[in-house]
Amino acid sequence: MKTYRMIQVGTGGHGAGWCELYLPPNVQDGLIEVVAAVDINPDALKNAQAFLGLDASQCYTDIQRAFAENQADFCTVVVPPAHHEEVVDAALARGMHILSEKPIADSMAASVRIAAKVRRAGVKMGVTMSHRFDQDKTTLRDELRSGRHGALDYLVCRFTCDCRKAGSWGKFRYRIPDPLMVEGAVHHLDILADLAGAECDSIYAQTWNPRWSEFSGDSQALVTMQFNNGTRAVYEGAKTNAVGLNDWGQEYFRAECERATLTLDHRRLERISYEPASQRAASRKVQSEEVHLRSQSKWSNTWLIEKFVRWLDGGEAMETNVEANLQSVALIFAAIESSRTGQPVRVQEFLQSFVEMESSG
Fold this sequence. Notes:
Elements: E1 4-9, H1 14-28, E2 32-38, H2 46-52, E3 59-60, H3 63-69, E4 74-77, H4 84-93, E5 97-101, H5 108-121, E6 125-128, H6 135-146, E7 152-160, H7 179-196, E8 200-208, E9 220-227, E10 232-238, E11 252-257, E12 260-265, E13 268-273, E14 289-291, H8 300-312, H9 322-341, E15 345-346, H10 347-360
Parallel strand pairs: 1-2, 1-4, 2-3, 4-5, 5-6, 7-10
Antiparallel strand pairs: 7-11, 8-9, 8-15, 9-10, 11-12, 12-13, 13-14
Helix pairs in contact: 1-2, 1-8, 4-5, 5-9, 5-10, 7-9, 9-10
């Protein structure tokens, strides 16, 4: 397998994590070589120098110059969603493949437009749905796919934080519309769909922003979903609660199955097996069994970077390629639409309407 040359676009904020945590293991494995970095903030480029060993001459504030002066197989997109499309356009002009942070873009129309551009250009684009590929959620998915627990009936997800003060969850999120949906629930609704193992048929959401919140857009949500295989899901998302009961990476999931209840809470997965009612006294204490988490060397974005370059090398397409990821983007924008209209939204029809608009345009 060849070593793929890449340009990191975005080195501040979450981009700092890419420089320090996600890219180095793949550099060490010989999968990638970071040849340049771009950020509009010169100070943020220090992260690329400190953690990736780049020289100052390899760090740019001008993306066009960076792309012109460095031969690369692909670039990353680790900038706010409103700027994703301009980075994608610059990469496509150079024939580069693209690995982007979620969501594809900050609107449904832009997301569909980007997918169409990538398709026409004949390049590969992946989206890093990092939470789905975290250790605890992967183990829960494995359990559900194993068949040991019978049919899946419904799912519950709780994600609650105290980030009401501006700046406690990055700066730009306090200025954009629908920050919870676009920057938080994009992961959680994606995970629920993945655990359900089917496309979402309908979604109903209520989103709002409490008076004590310093967000400009809606920071709280209650969502119900029904999937094409009959599975249902309930989501509670909150960024402005008094306390963070289930903050980032510590989410609560519950899967109600035919022969067991599976609970994931603060990265601990437990199974409570079904017993016939005749064998269980009403007052009997429920006994749970811990399920040990799957072990491997890479998780989250680190794992997804490897998946992406192996796809570039002729391997299996990554699960979160841009076409497949339109399903995840459709969930959040359909939920936003539902909240604004007060009505459930048929997700597949919603997505198809934007695909048809792009095709006719």
